[in-house]
Design brief:
Endonuclease, Chain A, 4 strands, binds zinc ion
Length: 186
């Protein structure tokens, strides 16, 4: 399958190229940096060369452009993969719809495979959609990410310290949540 675009297809590509460049990813990276979270980029030895890799948290962050990764896409062969009630960044182009449908389906399959492989290797996978980084939602999304990272860290710490029962683990998680909400209120 070649990817030679007709002029019309090229136009669609160009109009969506912004979502493929690094802007959403940069927002996430700057946020992480500001909060002292260290990351590696596009790690080659992991499936799909994930965008952002946080070794300390054993977590991979994937920043998805809504068009290319089909946010809210569904078709005859493809049931809805990702709920996207507030996303208006994905719309199948009206011309050459079949072409685009197939293309987005391929991208979604690739994403699914990558997600499965990473999870099987024991990585936490956190997906952030481009639309979740729009100004109105950005703060919420990124603080949610930070909260999840803190929980992962506390959970790992708990395991290392021998908090093995579920109750003890829950206690750790609660403590983590509390300490986090105190921090964020400052
Ligand atoms: Zn979206």
């Amino acid at each position: 399958m070649t990817d030679i675009f007709t002029p019309e297809q090229r136009h669609v590509v160009m109009s969506h190229i912004r979502s493929k460049d690094t802007r959403p990813e940069m927002l996430v990276r700057r946020f992480l940096h500001r909060h002292g979270v260290r990351y590696s980029l596009h790690v080659k030895y992991l499936p799909g060369r994930p965008d952002i890799v946080l070794r300390k948290y054993h977590t991979v962050i994937l920043v998805n452009g809504c068009f290319w990764h089909g946010h809210g896409f569904c078709s005859e062969d493809f049931p809805l993969q990702h709920e996207s009630p507030n996303c208006n960044l994905f719309r199948l182009p009206r011309s050459h719809t079949d072409f685009w449908e197939k293309k987005i389906e391929r991208n979604i399959s690739r994403d699914e495979k990558q997600h499965k492989e990473l999870t099987a290797m024991g990585w936490n996978v956190f997906t952030i959609w481009e639309c979740q980084l729009r100004p109105a939602e950005r703060e919420n999304t990124l603080m949610g990410l930070l909260r999840t990272l803190n929980l992962i860290l506390m959970k790992n710490l708990g395991v290392r310290m021998g908090y093995n029962t579920e109750e003890e683990e829950e206690g750790m998680m609660r403590a983590a949540e509390n300490s986090f909400s105190e921090e964020s209120e400052e």
